[in-house]
Known about the structure:
The complex is a heterodimer.
Chain A: H1 20-52, H2 83-115, H3 121-135, H4 139-151, E1 161-163, E2 167-170, E3 173-176, E4 178-181, H5 185-213, H6 219-237, E5 242-245, E6 248-249, E7 254-255, E8 258-260, H7 262-288, H8 292-300, H9 305-335, H10 339-342, H11 347-359, H12 362-391
Chain B: H1 3-12, H2 32-40, H3 45-71, H4 85-88, H5 96-108, H6 116-134, H7 141-161, H8 178-204, H9 209-224, H10 227-241, H11 250-275, H12 279-287, H13 292-322, H14 334-342, H15 352-386
Amino acid sequence: MSIDLRAGSPPARVPFYNDPKVRSIAYQVALCAVIVFLVYGAARNAIDNLERAHIASGFGFWNQTAGFDISQSMISYSNLSTYGRAFWVGLCNTLLVAVIGIFFATIIGFIVGIARLSKNWLVNKAATGYVETIRNIPLLLQLLFWYNAVLKALPDFRDSVNIPGGAFLNNRGLFLPEPLPQTGFNFVAMAFFAGVVVSIGYHIWARKRQEKTGQQAPVFLVSLGLIVGVPLIIFLALGLPLGFDFPRAGKFNMAGGIEILPEFAALLFGLSIYTAAFIAEVVRAGIRAVSHGQTEAAYSLGLRAQPTLRLIVVPQAMRVIIPPLTSQYLNLTKNSTLAVAIGYPDLVQIFTGTVLNQTGQAVEVVAITMAVYLTISLATSLLMNFYNSRIALVER
Amino acid sequence: MTMSEGDLAVTQLKFVRQTTLDQQPPPMSLHGPIGWLRTNLLSSPFNIVLTILIALFLAWIIPGLLNFLLIDAVWTGADRDACREVVQHRTIGACWPFVWERLAYFTYGSYPLDERWRVNIFFAMLAVGIFWILWLQAPRRDLATYYCFIVLPVCSYFLLHGLEIIGLPVVDTVLWGGVLVTIVVSAVGIVVSLPIGILLALGRRSDMPTVKLFSVLFIEFVRGVPLVTVLFMASVMLPLFVPEQYSPDKLLRALIGIAMFASAYMAEVVRAGLQAIPKGQFEGAMAVGLGYWQMMRLIVLPQALKITIPNIVNTYIGLFKDTTLVFIVGIFDLLHTIEVSRIDPKWATPVTSTTGYAVAGIFYLVFCYAMSRYARATEARLAKSERR
């Protein structure tokens, strides 16, 4: 059989349903139809079900009186406040535990991550043991353990553990002396903030000068003097304008001082320790990603161990560490929703728990809660993309 | 001077040794146990301090753990008096009789006593499936995939839920609990998330804008919110979206939530694998005339899934731990059964809670650690095949 190569033979007819363009459009129309159908059906059912259950829809509940108390709030709140106010209390509590948790998780995580690379056998194995154990036990179990088995098992407030410095620890929380600023203390605070601002300016100036002339400035010492030294001198000169309200055992509970709830402490312990194990792995991977040749090259240029670490290894490791580190921070924030299991008044506990039960408006409440977390996540990933594009290695 | 003259000159020197010395062992300080200690534990003042601190910490925590779990533990007893210090007049560690008595509840929840053999068969079938698919030398591993992803889910459903026609009475899911629920929830998450995750990953890389849009929206939405809120959504919003008579039961709602969540994470893992496949593979497949699905099924996915196995297993570990969150929407998984049992007045002692949490901790630690070892071994095996 010979192949017909004559010019002008009509091209093979492709049926229209085999045309990739037609197919693609058909698939997409079908997908849209299915999704529109599902959404429409769900909406119809939701309207029917809500009408049958006599549940109002809409966001009218936002300004109604909440009528419940919250054990910890950073902004003023009473049971006469609105549901909207309760929402802000919950959001503040979520952000508070997330920020403090991130702070501690970072410190523990970096220490353990570096320890996992240590040449000291015992340090290395202890760090590995920590990471392998903590990573393989569910966070919820760890939170319940800290709350029920450790903090709730502390003595009653009548037999509180005395901590030197006027603090008390018992099963109702940790009670710390509350600092009471007296007249003149605002000068100290002003000096502190002025010190921070001037230090940042000095740092920028010193870096510019070093880039131009090569001369180094004692940035650390000057900043220390400005931020700590000057406020301290003013504080002493004004005659210690700071008093303390010490907690003391009352008849039914502790009186005075600042109270740190056991729920908060358990959540903070659990989140920090759990996330630190993941951060440790991120840090270890980041440092190992810097090839050994970089260290050797730095040594051969005459740098000592400490400047090599600070100027060569850490900046390159940070490029690898920061993106997964941010996603760990996000995980910590999202995991703080487990507060609902131990009763810490975070956004989910207050809003998706109490407010949802009182109003019954499931769709609105869950949607608002999800929108909050979605906003935090998307804002962080936008920031991350911006950061990544800035520090990405410029390839040849 | 020639060579031989040189040799002659050396041999004539009286103070030059003519024979080689026997090899000496290196100095004690560099080898043997002392050398090991010096290089690994005491190499610098800072390391000495660290070693001492860690040793003190371990000397505090390891005997403490051993004392609690084994030495001071109570092994037999009928009720809380066996585990109370005021009654026994000694230090009390873990209260194991509490665990023995509650072991059946921890395993089956409130599953009817007469029907528990069904759960045991389910566990056995699951164990067979897991060994078949993980053991590399097992016969007919091609059938293992069908067994695990088709036969096992269908059989388990009828076995656990019941089928009146063949004489298995229906057991309401409200009665399910303990390890059974933990395993059912994680198995459903594992079995459902892989195919849906693959579809979503392909959708995200699709040329069709609407397919891509919906995939990206689903993945980013689910990954952007905490699992707790997804579970809340599934348990309080889902019943609103379906007609009242079809309202899913509590366990099914949680399963839908878990499956959605796991699929979105799996999609990102698979996408990373797809991105690692060189473009030439796609072009080569198209050049030999394969259609889209043939190209994916025969050329791209086998390669992409192979390199993502470690990450898939790591996602499964996360999923297995995350199943504890169904506790929050009122499902009686292992952790919830322990949480309920530990406040039982019959066993109310100061050590009951810790004992219960220790049991849960050991359970999760053993399973997750085994999975992570498997992932690491697979990684090493794949790295070996990549080496040339």
